[in-house]
């Protein structure tokens, strides 16, 4: 008996393989529903950041030059005066600041440094940390740590206040026990520790 063998045309096999290898393209509706990334959001340009860096460096250079010129930056009979080398470092810093400013002025790039949302997230950490460092001297590091951890957990982490107070208090007491009692390492203390006799 003759057996008939039917072969699919090569063109149909190639078309099927190509269709299987091609990834599915998202529909226009799905593409339009994707929100803009943070990098595409409005924010601070790199050019303006370079202007700010140049201004800060230039102000620091002027301060260094002025202060070292005041204490003496020349050459005496015994050698260089106290401000001789620092003044020249300040001058080099000023030259670098001017170079940064000129480079930013000549640049036509619109590259973004960070979006306002990204800067806001940085400020949510930086500002409380700055306040924490500022209150260490009057309150002591242990009381300041209680306030810092509590505030950060309540306002940034959205934890219940009683959990924040319990965890921050336990952490500060543990650190006090480890450093002040066990290791005998004195850390900055405030009125609370003085009232307790430490």
Q: What is the H/E string?
A: HHEHEEHEHHHH
How would the global form be characterised? Answer: flat
Oligomer type: single chain
- Rg (CA only): 32 Å
User: How far apart lie the N and C ends?
Assistant: 108 Å
Ranges with pLDDT <50 over ≥5 residues? Answer: 26-35
> Number of helical segments?
8
Structural class: mainly alpha
Q: Report the biggest beta sheet as strand number plus sense, adding barrel if it closes.
A: 2 strands, antiparallel
Q: How are the strands ordered across the major sheet?
A: 1-4
Mean pLDDT: 84
Tell me the domain tally: 2
**Approximately how much helix is present in the residues?**
55-70%
> Approximately how much beta-strand content do the residues carry?
5-15%
Count of DSSP E strands? 4
Q: What is the compact description of this entry?
A:
By secondary structure, this protein is mainly alpha-helical.
Characterize the structure shown:
With 198 residues, the chain is mostly helical. The chain has two domains: 41-110; 116-195, no CATH class. It has helices at residues 10-21, 28-33, 46-71, 84-106, 116-139, 141-156, 161-182, 191-195; strands spanning 43-45, 75-76, 79-80, 112-115. The strands form two sheets. The chain has a two-stranded antiparallel sheet with strand order 1-4. It has a two-stranded antiparallel ribbon with strand order 2-3. Helix 3 packs antiparallel against helix 4 and helix 5 packs antiparallel against helix 6. The longest helix has 26 residues, at 46-71. The radius of gyration is 32 Å and the shape is flat.
